[in-house]
Design goal:
The chain has 10 helices and 11 strands. The chain is an alpha/beta fold. Strand 7 and strand 8 (about 125-130) form a beta hairpin. The relative contact order is 0.20.
Length: about 240
């Protein structure tokens, strides 16, 4: 698998990385699957079919400088910050179900390779350690390509996570818990490896080559990004 490397490692807005996924899928003619990791300042990302006003505490986000963006994949609402890492996987496949299953298993096995126990995909789109969620994921299909992406929790600002997202009581009840805090877990509680070492291990475990993007590539990514920044896309039904 090829690791896609940006020229600069300075963090961008989450919208940039969603556009980068599209650019890699549509513009790069690479024979291998592609993968990259990224981090963002406090941000909520919600699914293609979700109503932002029902899923995101907009007042809290705005008052605490938390960004929020819509993605083109389905699934639920997640919170991300610089204490967790986002994963992006792009492959030339058409079978969404089989590709998603393979992606979730691939990430689970990568976490096992750092010594974690009882790591497994849930029946839907999460990766669990025991009965707790450590990674939420989603997927969508482009002509001839599939993009899978997710968040991997190492640490996080739990107060922001609890207040920036407004999951329904029905959703919490479905998982038999009373709060988001009881349902998730953090990698830092299961390993002595540092956050940088975990990211390094994931890259080395999954990828055997690197493709470096140049300034010209980044300019084209920013053109794609404009769609994600449009209020109609963010707030639209």
């Amino acid at each position: 698998m090829v690791y896609i490397q940006l020229a600069q490692n300075n963090p961008h807005k989450l919208s940039f990385y969603l556009a980068m996924e599209e650019y890699v899928a549509k513009a790069l003619d690479l024979s291998d699957d592609c993968f990259f990791m990224w981090q963002v300042e406090p941000t909520v990302i919600f699914g293609r079919n979700q109503d932002v006003e029902n899923e995101v505490n907009l007042e809290y986000c705005k008052s605490h400088c938390i960004n929020f963006f819509r993605r083109k994949s389905g699934g639920g609402c997640v919170y991300a910050d610089m204490s967790n890492v986002m994963l992006s996987y792009i492959t030339a496949e058409d079978n969404v179900e089989e590709t998603f299953k393979r992606y979730l298993q691939m990430i689970s096995e990568t976490l096992e390779s750092i010594g974690l126990k009882d790591v497994h995909p849930s029946g839907h789109n999460d990766i669990m350690i025991g009965e707790k969620k450590v990674s939420g994921n989603a997927i969508y299909h482009l002509p001839g390509k599939i993009i899978a992406h997710g968040t991997l929790l190492y640490d996080t600002d739990m107060e922001h996570m609890l207040h920036a997202i407004t999951p329904s009581k029905q959703k919490l009840s479905k998982h038999g818990v009373q709060s988001v805090r009881q349902r998730i877990c953090l990698l830092k509680d299961y390993t002595d490896m540092s956050f940088p070492d975990i990211r390094k291990h994931i890259r080395e475990h999954l990828c055997n080559s690197t493709y470096a993007l140049g300034e010209g590539d980044e300019e084209k990514i920013r053109i794609i990004e404009q769609e994600y920044l449009q209020p109609k896309f963010i707030y639209g039904k």
